[in-house]
Amino acid sequence: MNIPKHIAIIMDGNGRWAKKRGLPRLYGHHAGMKSVREVVRAAINAGVGVLTLYAFSTENWNRPKSEIKGLFGLLKLFIKKELSDLHKNNVKVKIIGRFFALPIDIVKLVKEATEKTSKNTGMILNIALNYGGRQEIVDAVNKIITEGVYKKVDEKIFEKYLYTTGLPSPDLVIRTSGENRISNFLLWQSAYSEFYTTETLWPDFKKKNLMEAISEYQKRNRRFGGL
Ligand code: FPP
Question: Among 138, 128, 141, 125, which Cα is nearest to 186's?
Fold first, then answer.
């Protein structure tokens, strides 16, 4: 029943979740990883085609080194623990972002995950890692210049140079923790996305919350600029 083909999530509020409990920020990220696990499964079961998760933005490098290290550690843990299950569930793992600027161990592990699942035909789990929407657009422009094939491009051609080439645009963008900003996320692709925000902090965002967001989406009347 009108399940969004592509859901993209800005997973926000891990730090505040930890602070509320008097815990270090990394505990919040760890709890956030558990939500990732549950929401991925819920999305598969609901029949979502693409789930994009904003795991690390180009701006996140401005955080303390220890937090960055912790976040990458959690990502590694997630892939190591979940890869075989994701594969069994026919999930195809994809990464968007300035991938090769990431630490070498992450690059290796992520490559293993994308290669292992490359032939899967189920849900695409698209992880935005070292991702920035403006950077994505600039990278696309530079690729076009370097290739030197086009003197002029249209939207259709331009989209082929984005990290998300081949994926549908997100129908629904969810942001947790009561913030109402796009924060450099899928700037091109979210032109007509429905935006859903909730006060719930990411570590508290579970299957029930995802289903609530989907049901709110189903009530929206999308006109894509028409009447
Ligand atoms: C925002 O919370 C969250 C992040 C910057 C990282 C999201 C990472 C995870 C959920 C962990 C693992 C990810 C995967 C894909 C396995 P914040 O730190 O900005 O929270 P705050 O605004 O309350 O400080």
Answer: 128
Of residues 88 and 99, more confidently modeled: 88
85 is catalytic: no
Query: What fold does the segment set 6-132+170-219 form as a domain?
Result: Undecaprenyl pyrophosphate synthetase (3.40.1180)
Selecting among 2, 14, 60, 62, the annotated active-site residue is 60
Query: How remote is the CA of residue 71 from the centroid of ligand 1, in Å?
Result: 8
Question: Does the annotation count 60 as an active-site position?
Answer: yes
CB within 8 A of 201, min separation 6: which ones? 12, 13, 14, 16, 17, 176, 177
What is the residue type of 79?
I
- 223 pLDDT above the threshold of 90: no
Closest atom, ligand 1, to C-alpha of 77: 16
pLDDT in tens, 29-53: 999 999 999 999 999 999 999 999 9
- Ligand 1 midpoint to CA 56 (Å): 8
CA distance 68 to 55: 11
- Looking from the CA of residue 60, the nearest atom of ligand 1 is 5
Domain ranges of the chain: 6-132+170-219
Q: For the segment 98-119, what is each residue's pLDDT rounded down to a tens digit?
A: 988 899 999 999 999 999 999 9
Residue nearest to atom 6 of ligand 1 (CA): 55
Report CA(10)–ligand 1 centroid distance (Å): 9
